[in-house]
TrEMBL record, chains A, B:
<dbReference type="InterPro" id="IPR000572">
    <property type="entry name" value="OxRdtase_Mopterin-bd_dom"/>
</dbReference>
<dbReference type="InterPro" id="IPR014756">
    <property type="entry name" value="Ig_E-set"/>
</dbReference>
<dbReference type="InterPro" id="IPR006311">
    <property type="entry name" value="TAT_signal"/>
</dbReference>
<feature type="domain" description="Oxidoreductase molybdopterin-binding">
    <location>
        <begin position="113"/>
        <end position="274"/>
    </location>
</feature>
<keyword id="KW-0560">Oxidoreductase</keyword>
<keyword id="KW-0500">Molybdenum</keyword>
<dbReference type="Pfam" id="PF03404">
    <property type="entry name" value="Mo-co_dimer"/>
</dbReference>
<dbReference type="InterPro" id="IPR036374">
    <property type="entry name" value="OxRdtase_Mopterin-bd_sf"/>
</dbReference>
<keyword id="KW-0732">Signal</keyword>
<dbReference type="InterPro" id="IPR030835">
    <property type="entry name" value="Sulfite_DH_SoxC"/>
</dbReference>
<dbReference type="InterPro" id="IPR005066">
    <property type="entry name" value="MoCF_OxRdtse_dimer"/>
</dbReference>
<feature type="domain" description="Moybdenum cofactor oxidoreductase dimerisation">
    <location>
        <begin position="294"/>
        <end position="411"/>
    </location>
</feature>
<keyword id="KW-0479">Metal-binding</keyword>
<protein>
    <submittedName>
        <fullName>Sulfite dehydrogenase</fullName>
    </submittedName>
</protein>
<feature type="signal peptide">
    <location>
        <begin position="1"/>
        <end position="27"/>
    </location>
</feature>
<dbReference type="Pfam" id="PF00174">
    <property type="entry name" value="Oxidored_molyb"/>
</dbReference>
<dbReference type="GO" id="GO:0006790">
    <property type="term" value="P:sulfur compound metabolic process"/>
</dbReference>
Length: 427, 427
């Protein structure tokens, strides 16, 4: 009956009740709890919880709201041994604690090179100079008088999953894949600003520079800037957060997040790349033959199962079970995600649910009847260009294991009969 | 050149620089600021701000992030004289401080009848009983083992703009229109739960009951429950916030938010509505003839200009100016929004930007060249059913002015030559 007029993957009644989802049936004769009768507290049964008997906090006591105290474990985390200091380090999004495709601003991963620069928006300036007809300086208010757009994009650090090149290492989805967030950005197309300044015909590259004390810099091809880059000042409706570039960062859709310079203060227009630190000693991919790939901008299609995962084990021992995960591609929309329960012998196509947008996270689910035996879970993303997410071994054959960047290989989680999950590789 | 390969409304170079956007040109010969040279602070010019010279906070110091200290004014606000107590009251979303279509969780409006119920998720139960084959009790973990979906929906209180029936009154967009939020909900279709319980053939209505001490109740037609209602446990990816029903509320897409019962603990299946307080003395619309409209569930198409508005005046005196606002409809997608600058004499079609989704907020913009004279700004939404947002006077002719609910009339903002904005009505 449930499937009759519904073409989505839903579970029929028999499969749920028959397959280990032990829903508590209300005891016969026990009757249903009655609504508390107003004005007669004596009518309340003794087991009515405190929250149904007393007034709670009034409105706007929490003028800017926070999560429940029961969700205090849902936080960004760093890995102390991973970097020499916390000012030049990373904290990871708790992907295993999220669903859907929007990352709440308070949980978006951070990657800083000199800590969180705390800019005063009144003193903020963005300069555009170099090979332009007219160098320009913009205040934040200037930027907000230019036509703006709203786009949901993922931002992924090139080093996401970087620890896994040499084998399964980080036993947590948050640490293997948590250098990604997906929010709605609001900003002005960079093209609008460049047209105002008047780009000279010999211009080919831009230098992007941050206002943090690391003065983060990257070279950006002019064509990408004209195609789709945004000078962004909002995420998920509100102002950028300090750790994500308040008041202004650049969005470089589909490209590695290191290029999404935060606290953006300067754009220089030139005719060649600058070869600064972040595109020479860092963010290049050293191959086995001693050569390095450089300017590896695009984040290839990738996916990961977020639940179950090492930090989110299964709490039941068999029966109806949901696998949930995320997929994304720097080349366009996700077209399909396949999931295997047995390490790649058999694959099934996952249900994509929620908006599937260009260069945005997509959410996928597989519902299945777990027999309680060991599982080897993997997901494999395909994007609209036909690109298929490779295995880690396929990547290693081409790239070797010297790099920390651009590991978009298929992730394997082993689920034990007890529901515990660990990061493994299967030969 | 700017418009050549782009079919969006963007402003050509001449129109921006020619029309009062006084961008600061960089002084000739002044040169561009150089990137701070690492290791040689003495090279920094004296006017380099502190944030470009010192390390900021390291990662995960703010394990759950907060907005910048410069955004402390971006908060929900209540109106002290509006209600007898803050436990049975409302706080409003600061719409004039937001952009795009996602409301951050910390800014979603609240409406409580007995304050914020603080449930412990481990003790949470949802009971389904009444005209069912098998009464059932669900834990939160049970709900999370059922197939779930992700949908971006607006939730609007039926009383939104309710103070305006008798004329312009609240001089703030936050208070005239701020009882609305728009987030991505994750939840299980209610249909799945009802199929599990087995609804009897004579069933026609559901009673929804909250676990707060007001035991909030509403009657819901069974057909709506089967069509599209969600038993939701997440908003924007993370758990519901306490003030929005943690751990479980119901989403009733397109219908008045009073029916979106928070802290949902009980669903009773019956054959007729219950006629409880919230659908008799409240949430009915008293007409001039003494009769009342009841079960007025659907939120009709509506829109409002959020910027400029009384709390967000124009800071410039003429030139390129952006009007930004939101539109939504409980009957489907927004098809079009028109904007007038002169109180309805001339209309232009706004640019919708960002996802335009079924029963979700849509964002619109109009860019225009302000001559510095008085403006009378209005927006008018049309949805995909062909419904056109009415004027307030058109509404009053049909409904009178006795009700506080379902005022979706066109809002007028007067902008003075000084850029100040006030809530007015024009005859």
């Amino acid at each position: 009956m449930l499937n009759k007029d519904n073409n989505r993957t839903v579970v029929s009644r028999r499969s749920l009740l028959g397959k280990g989802l032990a829903l508590g049936a209300v005891a016969a004769g026990g009757g249903a709890p009655k609504a508390a009768e107003a004005g007669n507290p004596a009518n309340l049964p003794p087991n009515v919880p405190e929250w149904s008997k007393t007034l709670g906090d009034g409105v706007a006591v929490r003028a800017y709201g926070k999560p429940s105290k029961h969700e205090a474990h849902v936080i960004r985390r760093d890995v102390e041994w991973l970097t020499a200091s916390r000012e030049s380090s990373v904290s990871f999004t708790p992907l295993h604690e999220l669903d859907g495709i929007i990352t709440p601003n308070g949980l978006c991963f951070e990657r800083h090179h000199s800590g969180i620069a705390e800019l005063d928006p009144h003193d903020y300036r963005l300069m555009i100079h170099g090979l332009v007809d007219k160098p320009l300086m913009f205040t934040l208010e200037d930027l907000e008088r230019l036509p703006r757009v709203n786009r949901i994009y993922f931002a992924e650090c090139a080093a996401n999953s970087g620890m896994e090149w040499r084998g399964a290492q980080m036993n947590a989805c948050q640490f293997t894949h948590g250098m990604i967030h997906n929010v709605m950005y609001t900003g002005v197309p960079l093209k609008v600003l460049l047209e105002e300044a008047g780009v000279k015909t010999n211009a080919k590259w831009l230098l992007l520079e941050g206002a943090d004390s690391a003065a983060m810099t990257r070279s950006l091809p002019l064509q990408k800037a004209l195609d789709d880059c945004l000078i962004a000042f909002r995420m998920n409706g509100e102002r950028l957060r300090p750790e994500n570039g308040y008041p202004v960062r650049i969005c470089v859709p589909g490209w590695e997040a290191n290029m999404w310079v935060k606290w953006l203060r300067r754009i220089e227009v030139g005719d060649q790349p600058w070869h600064h630190r972040e595109e020479t000693s860092k963010y290049t991919d050293l191959l086995e033959n001693g050569k390095a790939r450089r300017f590896t901008y695009v984040m290839d299609a990738k996916s990961v199962i977020t639940n179950p995962s090492p930090q989110a084990p299964l709490k039941h021992r068999k029966g109806i079970t949901i696998v949930s995960g995320i997929a994304w591609s720097g080349r366009g929309k996700i077209a399909r995600v396949d999931v295997t329960l047995d390490g790649g012998r058999n694959w099934r196509t996952a249900r994509l649910d929620g908006p599937v947008l260009d260069r945005s996270m997509a959410r996928f689910y597989v519902e299945f009847d777990w027999d309680g035996q060991e599982l080897f879970l993997q997901s494999r993303a395909m994007d609209e260009t036909g690109y298929v997410q490779p295995t880690k071994d396929e990547l290693r054959k081409v790239r070797g294991v010297n790099s920390v960047y651009h590991n978009n290989g298929i992730q394997t989680w082993r689920v034990s009969p007890e529901g515990e999950v660990e990061n493994v590789e299967i030969a």
